[in-house]
User: Fold this.
Amino acid sequence: MASTLYNIFNSLAKAVKATGVEHVYLVNRPKLFDTSMGSFVVILLPARLYRDVKGNTDFLVSTAGTFMIGTVAKKDGTPNIKAQTELIQKFMDLFPISDDYITASHPQIIMRGDDETGYQITSIIFDIRTKINQYLK
Assistant:
């Protein structure tokens, strides 16, 4: 399963590069109190991976993923709705994410609010399925 997680993270990280976000973290982000970086994304995977029955589907493993996207709040601490909306739209335009290893689809947006370090957090939760043919390579 380690190679499955690697392929999922790698596929999602490659897709995220198309958004222009320079700071991409896997699983955790550093404790940020410096808002100079503008925006970031954390790619999270849940602890559960469901193995599908081979032959019943074209996919082998089903799970879910999350992009936690941070954008700098305005100087007065209020959300920068314009910047946040534009960045979230770039992520939504990625879906469905599909390559030789995964298909990620059905994104849902959750506005998380202020993280108390100067960033506004938005999560995009989505389904992930790994393709059976990834194991034939």
The CA atoms of residues 111 and 122 lie 5 Å apart. The radius of gyration is 16 Å. The chain has a mean pLDDT of 86. The longest strand covers residues 59-72.
